[in-house]
Amino acid sequence: MKSSRHRRRAWWLVVLGALIGTAAISAFVFRPDRALRVGTAVVSEALCGGVFVSKLDPQQVFAEDVEPNRGLQLLRRHLHYAIDRDTQTVSTTWLGHFRSVAHFQASYGCTLGDSVSPPRSAIAPLDSLPEPPLEAGTAALQAALAHAFEEPTKPPYRHVRAIVIMRDGKIIAERYALGVDPDTPLLGFSASKSMMNALVGILVREGRLDIHARAPVKAWDHADDPRSVITPDQLMRMTSGLDLTEGDSGFDPVSRMLFIEPDMAGFAERAKLKAKPGTQWEYTSGDTLIVSAIVRDLVGGHASDVLRFARHELFEPLGMHHTIMEFDQAGTPIGSTRIFASARDWARFGQLYLDDGVAGGRRILPQGWVAYSTRQTLDSDYAAGFWINAGGNDNAQWRVRHGMPADTFYASGLNGQRVVVVPSHHLVIARLGSTIDPPNFDMRGLARLVSEVIATEKPTPPMAQ
């Protein structure tokens, strides 16, 4: 035991010395200490959301959401996490250092930070109205769901947690994993960007925002600032040209923004231009965080204002009673990656876009907003918060060849969170899980699900006499 402790201590000293030396040599460009902080923050945030928001078993969350994460493979052995149910916090360290803490607050979800101030004003949780009973669906739909939930014989596993299928505005089939039910809020990761699209659309409908005018960002409000010409449209389409590279190394600026910076949008707004706005497409959550701050400021400036606005204008009209937005320490909604909703709520959200922005006879999104939101951006398969099959992009054409109609568009998030809308078949499919299989998170399985569900529309041929 003694020699083991000595070896561990010696190994730690070597690692620490390497980190300090590397950080000193490369200054602010390459910071291993930041990457380690990102790693512990990823764990704290995942466990906090999984345990306190989704109310899943912590061992399941760690096994399915944390352990398979490629970016944590080298750190996993020496990670230590502690869940305190009394204070509703999760803290994680690596070799006893690089501590990250996530705090849960009712209605606001989890926030990263050593000390998190309480919200400016308390917001009562949404009324949890009783959900209708489960809809198993026809035998053909049950078979399609069984295929989607089926696990391969070896990793990577699908870990599908919920699928809800709606046709003509009604749930026709659904299935849930053990421990998940119709009330369970599940993290959408980047599918959250599509919900931010809706909040922006509402502000446009109300005349409070012009997406083609200069973005109302104070940090850029100078005539000689080249970023001052960036528009909300360019931010939503990820053509801002800002130097906000997104990766999973822990060294990229978006990782720092999401897991270390207390004011995420403020960090993103300080980025320099690396391309002329509107000329290049590059996927980055940084653009969406800036949009999130614009929404925050236009509705009152505080997390509580955003939550009231989202509930009154979007969640309640759609019957989304199991949806939770999370915020950073600056009160900005983390609209890039941190919105939880039950699978039924995600499907209801997709139905809003299938119905051209109208719910219950009330126009939620402005006329033409869905068409705008699903129009191709440059030569990518991205639009303005949604991925699309329209256009000649190779990825889009692959999906069409594998059974997803050309008019399909969808919200998409890390690890296989998908809300698929197929207008030509009056179809919405919400699929949530922890499919850690980059880069496409079981897109082939999703395409099969869509094609099999569409196939159930076909009438059974008459039996031979």
CATH superfamily grouping of the largest domain:
DD-peptidase/beta-lactamase superfamily
Termini Cα gap: 81 Å
Q: Give the SSE order as H and E letters.
A: HHHEEEEHEEEHHHHHHEEHEEHEHEEEH
Which term fits the overall shape? globular
How is the CATH topology of the largest domain named?
Answer: Beta-lactamase
Global mean pLDDT: 91
Task: Write a compact overview of the structure shown.
The protein is an alpha+beta fold. It contains 14 helices and 15 strands. The protein has helices spanning 2-26, 32-53, 58-66, 139-149, 192-205, 232-237, 253-259, 264-269, 285-299, 303-318, 343-354, 369-373, 394-401, 443-455; strands at 79-84, 89-94, 97-105, 109-112, 160-167, 170-176, 186-187, 323-325, 339-341, 358-359, 362-363, 387-388, 409-413, 417-422, 427-433.
Report on this model:
- It is a single chain.
- It contains 14 helices and 15 strands.
- It has helices at 2-26, 32-53, 58-66, 139-149, 192-205, 232-237, 253-259, 264-269, 285-299, 303-318, 343-354, 369-373, 394-401, 443-455, and strands at residues 79-84, 89-94, 97-105, 109-112, 160-167, 170-176, 186-187, 323-325, 339-341, 358-359, 362-363, 387-388, 409-413, 417-422, 427-433.
- Helix 2 crosses helix 7.
- The protein is globular and about 60 Å long.
- By secondary structure, the chain is α+β, with helices and mostly antiparallel strands.
- A hairpin with a 4-residue loop joins strand 14 (417-422) and strand 15.
- The protein has a 6-stranded antiparallel β-sheet with strand order 6-5-15-14-13-12, with helices on both faces. A 4-stranded antiparallel β-sheet has the order 1-2-3-4, with helices on one face.
- The chain starts with a helix and ends in a 10-residue tail after the last helix.
- The protein has 2 domains: 31-112, no CATH class; 186-455, DD-peptidase/beta-lactamase superfamily (Beta-lactamase, 3-Layer(aba) Sandwich), CATH 3.40.710.10.
- 36% of the residues lie in helices and 15% in strands.
